[in-house]
Write a structure and sequence with these properties.
The complex is a heterodimer of chains A (about 425) and B (about 350). Chain A is an all-alpha fold. Chain A contains 20 helices and 2 strands. Chain A folds into 3 domains: about 40 residues; about 100 residues, no CATH class; about 220 residues, Orthogonal Bundle (MetI-like fold), CATH 1.10.3720.10. A two-stranded antiparallel ribbon of chain A has the order 1-2. Chain B folds into 2 domains: about 160 residues, D-Maltodextrin-Binding Protein, domain 2 (3-Layer(aba) Sandwich), CATH 3.40.190.10; about 150 residues, Periplasmic binding protein-like II (D-Maltodextrin-Binding Protein, domain 2), CATH 3.40.190.10. Chain B has about 350 residues and is an alpha/beta fold. In chain B, strands 1, 2, 3, 4, 5, 6, 7, 8 and 9 form a 9-stranded mixed β-sheet that branches. The chains are: A mainly alpha (about 425), B alpha/beta (about 350).
């Protein structure tokens, strides 16, 4: 027989398989223990981060008030063409729904939601619900309670919002609105503010970031060239304000920047200006304070990167005949890109979320998105709008982060080539 | 060891007795000068009289906190001071308990605006024009002067909301105090108010917290400001030369409301009844220039105290009662338009 011997080949294959299995098992065990180690963190992140953000995104499109309070009316309006007053069954359904809603809090929630659509709807709903139940012809009774029930827009508002999700808040955050037939239009100019606010938020963020970089770069460079002892002293000077409460620092800026404050009296004493300059309650005050607060976020990454750059490279370039500035610009600066990128990203993303600084130091034209998120959450109690603005801010941050990643990657590729 | 257990059980027994006899009530108000006046007129006498303890909490009127508590069914606030619009909305949405007036007192013993379904007025306050008489030679007499930057040059302080400012603008434009809300209810009226606001926009310095306008006036940052009258009263008590123009002021009430599901509802009602009784109401008005809601308390005040109150006859002659119903219906829309206008 010339058949190949079975065992000598099979044995190594079996052994190999066993070895592989064992390896895989060991790998799995390792993975499992690693997973077990990070499980608390993963769980923590899920609970405090992913779940709330999910809830926020969900709340930005949720609109359960109308189908909750008016189930029969929504059903009766399902096939209505929205061009003429709805059929009489809709009136009967509305009267029945409002009579039920009156018992719980549904009428209040409904009134709040419908008032988002048409001003004055709130009192219409409350007034009608109070008059329930009605006898006989529902249509005549409702119109007798308030003539507005005989008008088309009030019915269209209900029909338009029959489903449990709505693009209303997201559209409103982008200065858009849906008309009564569902197509999207621009909001009237006197109510259109949010695009301006988003633009302003990004602009203030960019301005703050640029100024912080301008100040932080030379400072970090200087600190990185100092001997360790003095460098530590500089770093402590950077960190002490960093550890002070933001509110305290803002209050200090109010004292410094006001009409009769230190800055203005100083400038006037030096003869720079004849009268006090308005430094407070405008963009100037906001920018100054934000740059001051965010400076450490720029200095620290820059410093740590610069500390690791060997000074010999630059010296070598100069000794080979390069102009000192060219050596700095073409040899030193590219090596700090990682620090610049980290600092810029950190400062910018923190800056666009700022709320308290513009609220205390700015005028009405300096308020950023977070101010309106807080306003809708606390004052207006319109959580749909707050969540929609928050969701858009989150989206803007993620888009910018993606763009940043793109740039960093192309840069890295370019460097390799 | 024995001694230790003995101490612990004695302490526990004492604690249990303490819980049984004295109770805690969490009362939330806006703090500041008003909070201090409430402490002197309501909290301290109540604690002394009943042995119960009042836990004071301050907030800025954020209804979101009440809503969150009520929705989560974990209500830790027993009594909350709320403004007119928030009371009406909160009542409709089921955030507040309906009040049992048999435990508070007959509705007729209060001024007509005070007794509401879910809340009862605690005091009358007013948003008025104020100026620093040390820095102004010509005293302003009303909203027309507030708008007249030629006659009285300088900055004006205004609250950063649509509320009040639209009404003031209409009065400056010649609308009579009694017709303000009739005009504001129309699209043309709103346009007219914003057009009037355009005129003084470059001269406005905005304020958000009630403590700011007296500071602005004292520092000379503004020559005139809209302001809560109690804040001017507090500054005057500190010797500042600030004056109030009552003509065309907008007055309103702050209310007590019990968040739905409060575990101490009965105690809260007891505290409400105590704080709106004549003696407490009169004591409150003597601590701060906000008017009593109890008719009998008004009669108990001397002429000098009365002269500084928003609901004294001389001061309320040409004043406007804030139209809560109007603002509940149109507040969101007008606030949005105001924000857009202010930011441009």
């Amino acid at each position: 027989m010339t058949a190949p011997p079975a065992t000598p080949v099979a044995a190594p294959v079996a052994a190999q398989r066993k070895l592989k299995q064992e390896l895989r098992r060991a790998e799995l065990r390792k993975k499992a223990s690693a997973l077990a180690l990070i499980a608390p963190l993963a769980l923590f992140l899920l609970v405090v981060f992913a779940v709330p953000i999910g809830a926020l995104l969900q709340r930005a499109v949720a609109s359960p008030e109308i189908p909750n309070a008016l189930p029969q009316t929504v059903a009766a309006l399902a096939h209505w063409d929205r061009k003429a007053l709805p059929p009489d069954v809709a009136f009967t359904a509305l009267a029945a729904d409002l009579a039920t809603a009156r018992q719980g809090n549904a009428a209040g929630e409904l009134a709040r939601r419908l008032n988002n659509e048409i001003s004055g709807y709130r009192s219409l709903v409350t007034k009608t619900a109070r008059a329930m139940p009605v006898e006989g012809d529902a249509k005549a009774a409702l119109v007798a309670i308030d003539a507005r029930w005989g008008e088309l827009p009030y019915w269209q508002a209900i029909a338009k919002n029959g489903s449990r999700t709505t693009p209303f808040f997201l559209l409103a955050s982008l200065d858009l609105q849906q008309d009564n037939f569902g197509s999207i239009h621009k909001a009237p100019p006197e109510g259109a503010i949010y695009l301006d606010i988003f633009g302003r938020t990004l602009w203030i963020g960019a301005l703050t970031t640029a100024l912080a970089l301008l100040i932080a770069f030379p400072l970090a460079y200087w600190a990185s060239t100092l001997p360790a002892r003095q460098a530590n002293l500089v770093m402590i000077c950077v960190l002490i304000p960093f550890w002070t409460s933001v509110l305290v620092r803002i209050a200090a800026w109010v004292v410094l920047l006001q009409q009769s404050g230190l800055v203005n009296t100083g400038l006037m004493a030096l003869g720079v200006t004849s009268g006090p300059i308005a430094l407070l309650f405008n963009r100037t005050g906001v920018t100054i304070s934000m740059v001051h607060i965010l400076l450490p976020f720029m200095i620290l990454p820059l410093y740590s990167v610069m500390k690791a750059i060997p000074p010999t490279y630059q010296r070598a370039a100069i000794s080979l005949g390069s102009h000192p500035f060219a050596a700095f610009w073409r040899v030193y600066v590219p090596q700090t890109y990682a620090g610049i990128a980290a600092g810029v990203l950190l400062v910018f993303i923190t800056a666009i979320g700022y709320y308290i600084t513009p609220a205390l130091l700015g005028g009405p034209g300096d308020q950023m998105v977070s101010y309106y998120v807080a306003y809708f959450t606390n004052q207006a109690v319109n959580w749909g709008m707050a969540c929609a603005l928050g969701a858009l801010l989150l989206a803007a941050t993620l888009v910018l982060y993606a763009v940043y990643q793109r740039i960093v990657q192309t840069n890295a590729n370019a460097n390799i080539r | 060891m024995h001694r230790f257990t003995l101490h612990v059980s004695a302490a526990a027994a004492l604690l249990a007795c303490g819980l049984a006899s004295a109770k805690d009530l969490t009362v939330v108000n806006f703090g500041g000068a008003n909070g201090n006046a409430q402490k002197a007129a309501f909290v301290q006498p109540y604690e002394k009289q009943t042995g119960n303890k009042i836990i004071g909490v301050e907030y800025n009127g954020e209804q979101a906190k009440v809503k969150a508590m009520v929705e989560a069914k974990r209500v830790t606030w027993d009594l909350v001071e709320v403004e007119t619009g928030d009371l009406a909305r909160g009542c409709e949405e089921g955030l507040y308990e309906k009040l049992d007036y048999s435990k508070i007192g007959p509705k007729t013993s209060f001024i007509p605006e005070a007794p509401q379904e879910c809340g009862i007025g605690i005091f009358v306050w007013s948003t008025v024009l104020a100026y620093n008489s040390e820095k102004l030679k010509t005293a302003p007499t009303g909203w027309k002067d507030f708008w007249d930057v030629k006659k009285i040059p300088g900055k004006r302080g205004m609250r950063k909301t649509a509320l009040y400012n639209l009404e003031f603008a209409l009065m400056a434009d010649g609308v009579l105090a009694k017709d303000v809300y009739k005009v504001l209810a129309t699209k043309e009226g709103v346009d007219r108010a914003f057009k009037k606001l355009d005129e003084i926009k470059p001269f406005i310095q905005w304020w958000e917290a009630g403590a700011q306008p007296p500071q602005f006036l004292v520092a000379g940052d503004v020559v005139m400001s809209t302001v809560f009258n109690g804040r001017i009263d507090a500054a005057r008590r500190e010797g500042k030369a600030l004056n109030v123009v009552w003509d065309g002021g907008i007055y309103d009430l702050d209310y007590w409301a019990i968040p739905k599901g409060s575990p101490n509802k009965d105690l809260a009602l007891e505290y409400i009844a105590f704080s709106v009784a004549p003696a407490q109401q009169a004591a409150y008005a003597k601590n701060i220039a906000y008017g009593p809601v109890n008719q009998a308390a008004i009669k108990m005040l001397d002429a000098k105290t009365l002269a500084d109150l928003p609901n004294a006859p001389a001061n309320s002659k040409n004043a406007v009662l804030l139209d809560g119903a109007f603002w509940t219906d149109h507040g969101e829309e007008l606030q949005q338009r105001f924000t857009a206008w202010a930011a441009k």
